[in-house]
Write a structure and sequence with these properties.
Order of helices and strands: HHH
Structural class: mainly alpha
């Protein structure tokens, strides 16, 4: 179960690593890209907020359901693409 969740997080992190150079949120225009963003004042606040939100989601919403098989977190984005075939692809990847 943890491997599937970690795989999903790694895919989101890879996308975020590329997108950070092209997308800037309002108020964070002066924050440099990359790891140096954490050392600047607005970047530090954004990092703390992201850390707290991710922790709350992990502990409250994205928990494993005992009535489902291990690793079945369903369709977290609600796109309607998570079926038996997609689950087999995810497990066999």
């Amino acid at each position: 179960a943890a491997e599937i969740k970690h795989g999903r997080v790694a895919m989101m992190a890879a996308l975020g690593g590329v997108a950070q150079h092209f997308i800037k949120f309002p108020g964070f225009d002066g924050v440099p890209s990359g790891f140096s963003a954490v050392a600047t004042a607005p970047g530090t606040y954004g990092f703390v907020a992201l850390f707290l939100v991710a922790g709350a989601l992990e502990l409250a919403l994205w928990t494993e359901d005992p009535s489902k098989e291990p690793g079945n977190f369903g369709d977290p984005a609600g796109l309607g693409q998570y079926n038996t075939e997609m689950r087999q692809r995810e497990l066999n990847n």
